Amino acid sequence: MKINNHLLTTFGAFLMLVSCGQQNQSSNGALSSSAAEKVYVAPGEQDEFYAFLSGGYSGNLTVYGLPSGRMFKEIPVFSQFPTSGYGYSEETKPMLNTSHGFVPWDDAHHPDISQTNGELDGRWIFINGNNTPRIARINLSTFETEEIIEVPNSAGNHSSSFITENTEYVVAGTRFSVPIPQRDMPINEYKSNFKGSLSFISVDPEHGHMDLKFQLLMPGFNYDLSHPGRGKSHGWFFFTTYNTEEAYTLQEVNASQNDKDFIAAVNWKKIEEYVNNGGGTKMPANYAHNVYDEGTHTATTTMNKEVLTVDPLKVPGAVYFLPTPKSPHGCDVDPTGQYIIGNGKLSADLTVHSFDKMIAAIEGEKFDGEAYGIPILKFEDVLAGQVKSGGLGPLHTEFDGNGNAYTTFFISSEVVKWKLGTWEVIDRKPTYYSVGHLMIPGGNSRKPFGKYVVAMNKITKDRYLPTGPEMEHSAQIYDISGDKMELIYDFPTHGEPHYAAGIPADILAPKSQKIYRLDENEHPYAVKTPTDAKVVRDGNEVHIYMSTIRSHFTPDNIEGIKVGDKVFFHITNHEQDFDVPHGFAIIGQNTSELLIMPGQTKTSVWEPKQVGVWPFYCTDFCSALHQEMQGYVRVSPANSNIELKWSLGE
Amino acid sequence: MKKASLLMIIGPLFLLGLYVFPLWNIMLGAPQYPDPLGLHIHISGLQGANEFDIQNIDGLNHYIGMQTLPKPEDMWEFGTFPLIIGIMVAIGVSIGILGYFDKVSYKWFIGWFALMSIMGVLGMYDFNEWLVDYGTNLDPNAIMKLTNLDGTPMTYKPPLLGHVKMLNFDVTSLPSIGAWLMFLGMMLTLTAGILGWKNAIKQ
């Protein structure tokens, strides 16, 4: 203990020196020793929260700790990931199949953790692929992507992937409206011909499997962001819209003309009932559903050929428009479910709608016209209040569970704290620079954990040592446990984080899986004991059933392979010890290496093009004899008659 | 004598704990094993403290040429010890019952305790012999052949009792619940013997 105290004192003194030094150089070096103590997670200690930051154009999801800002892992989701072989191995290639073929990349935006009764339950995290519309589900005990479903009739899958409060649905709205079904037509006939689809994807409560239950075909606006109702407003879903002008060119100007766009309020319970009673129209479609089976460690793709569409006019009382000023971006619902916040991105003010007032207006049938037959409520009738913030460009709002809301302002580059109900501004702090989303763990659920807020910025500039024109995006952590926010840390992120989701570590850490059980491995090419290792030829395809354990491959000498063969290395890691992966790489591999976790089987295809004796080796420094973990494959000319032969230690 | 006999009946029953709980426990911690690997030594065989510990200990030990840990069928002890314990419990309880009905004297109590103690010591001796063999009878083709400072080949006998630093591992060997229950039971029979003896003096 004494030693530790001494170390802490020394370290504290060091940090103070550092911060003094920085203050001389820069006036915004806000790092004080108390801030340092707040984010300092001592060696051997662990963070209080997990934070899952979307990777934007990296296509993946990164896992960080709060308050330390340390990155723990990058989870491959929509992008090929040579580190582990995701999207390269035979088992995981199907994960990236779509109706457009194999799409090895996407733009990953809005992660959302599964909930029960409106509270985070930490079973799965969902994230949307924006570019080729897809929704992924990641298992939060293995931290692996288990399922990806493509969303048909969608384009720019942006108002996604938000879940209802018992994870009944993960919801995916389209940003671009498109012809539905897609067809060859002039672009300038957009108006009233294009449509926007809002997809309700049901989630199996036991296994999490997703199924596109129905698609609501809405007018051809842009559906920007969404959030579910909760508590009293459970059963409703709210979507911001822009481009109610239905412009199809120079939207920068042409989609910014209306003073007010809408928040679409969708009573999904009503539509679910309609659909369960046989309502809706089945429409031909073509979309991929990719499911990874943990038993076989293998993904399969199913192409679905039909989707159930719903015309909102056929379900009276299901959809209303709430006028909301200035092309609202974020659409956030407070923990009680009473307030729906429209962040009018071209304005200085926030618009807050009241759920109770909305219901009263609907019951009183006080409409202010309609759009494509959908009733528009009167702005004044549903307005709960406006936050006169003095900031510019509000984008997103999160909540601390103590009656406060926190909104990011992109243009004025700040986070503003304000009070729900009185709409008064309590505090504001600058961000560095041009903040997009912000995240409080559980901050968009019934039960936020209001201790930290993370602001994710779009512009980095001078925050870190320069690394040429391209830099990672910056993020800041603020302590929000007091009245005033306190900037306590600044760290670079990976890719471009859009939204993020956080959860207390004590919910996830205890159930994080350490190994895959070899005795539960059902991979058809798995070898359960080294004596089962073998090499089998089938025409010009050769299947190598290989096992690994510290520190050798079985077999490690293989002869009888010929130029022109397609060689499948099926590798099973026989370790059953935490954190002992083995890697596999062979010269001239046109895919990527494999990183195989204990008990797992993965397959790499190798097509040798040259005669010779070619080495393979373990890429993960697995043990003291890691360098010796290697082997040879003899490749003979295509017309040779060398017998297949394999061995270890002969 | 009634009280002493009751203790003599109860005491040996504590040995039944050996059928459920481990006799001895060896834990192996290392920098890269913050959750130590562990061996529970039962009278009927070895068990890992965690499910895959035996496999993982064997995996590590192959580098230094140690034998794999024995399965129950590999050592006669794992067949015999449960029998011996069973017989000793039966004899002990029988002596207690006979004592209760004044058929035998306290000397039988002390006699049982002495016999059990001798067998315990023999058991420990046998266990130590195995540890010596396990730690010193190494594969001549071992991957790592380490030597002590004086040039003699390094051996890896785990301690019978206590802690030893062995390469990167901290090895701690301690009696486990089964042994403590056995110890308690034997103390009860010793107390029974002493009570019986005091009783005999008084009369």
Summarize the structure.
The complex is a heterodimer of chains A (650) and B (203). Chain A is mainly β.
What does this structure look like?
The complex is a heterodimer of chains A (650) and B (203). By secondary structure, chain A is mainly β. Chain A contains 7 helices and 46 strands. Chain B is an alpha+beta fold and 203 residues long. Chain B has one domain. In chain B, 50% of the residues lie in helices and 16% in strands. Chain B contains 5 helices and 5 strands. In chain B, a hairpin with a 2-residue loop joins strand 4 and strand 5. The mean pLDDT of chain B is 94. At the A-B interface, loops of A face helix 2 of B.
Brief descriptors of the model:
heterodimer; A: mainly beta; Immunoglobulin-like; 3 domains; 11-stranded mixed sheet; 6-stranded mixed sheet; B: 203 residues; 5 helices
Please identify which CATH superfamily of the largest domain in chain A we are dealing with. Answer: YVTN repeat-like/Quinoprotein amine dehydrogenase
Task: Give the averaged pLDDT of chain B, no decimals.
Answer: 94
Number of distinct beta strands of chain B: 5
Cα-based radius of gyration of chain B, to the nearest Å: 21 Å
| SS-derived structural category of chain A | mainly beta
Q: Could you tell me how far the N terminus lies from the C terminus of chain A, measured between alpha carbons in angstroms? A: 55 Å
CATH fold group of the largest domain in chain A: Methylamine Dehydrogenase, Chain H
The computed structural class of chain B is: alpha+beta
SSE map:
The complex is a heterodimer of chains A (650) and B (203).
Chain A: H1 2-25, H2 33-39, E1 49-54, E2 61-66, E3 71-75, E4 97-98, E5 101-102, E6 112-116, E7 119-129, E8 134-139, E9 144-150, E10 159-163, E11 169-173, E12 178-179, E13 194-203, E14 210-219, E15 222-228, E16 236-242, H3 251-254, E17 260-267, H4 268-276, E18 281-293, E19 298-310, E20 319-325, E21 328-333, E22 339-344, E23 349-354, H5 355-363, E24 367-371, E25 374-377, H6 379-382, E26 383-388, E27 394-399, E28 404-409, E29 414-419, E30 425-430, E31 435-439, E32 452-457, E33 474-479, E34 486-492, E35 500-504, H7 505-508, E36 534-538, E37 541-549, E38 552-554, E39 557-562, E40 566-573, E41 582-586, E42 594-596, E43 601-606, E44 612-617, E45 630-636, E46 645-647
Parallel strand pairs in A: 14-19, 37-40, 39-45
Antiparallel strand pairs in A: 1-2, 1-35, 2-3, 4-5, 6-7, 7-8, 8-9, 9-18, 10-11, 11-13, 12-13, 13-14, 15-16, 16-17, 17-20, 18-19, 21-22, 22-23, 23-26, 24-25, 27-28, 28-29, 29-30, 31-32, 32-33, 33-34, 36-37, 37-38, 39-46, 40-43, 41-42, 41-44, 44-45
Chain B: H1 2-13, E1 24-30, E2 33-42, E3 45-48, H2 53-61, H3 77-100, H4 106-136, E4 162-166, E5 169-175, H5 177-202
Antiparallel strand pairs in B: 1-2, 1-5, 2-3, 4-5
Helix pairs in contact in B: 1-3, 1-5, 3-4, 4-5
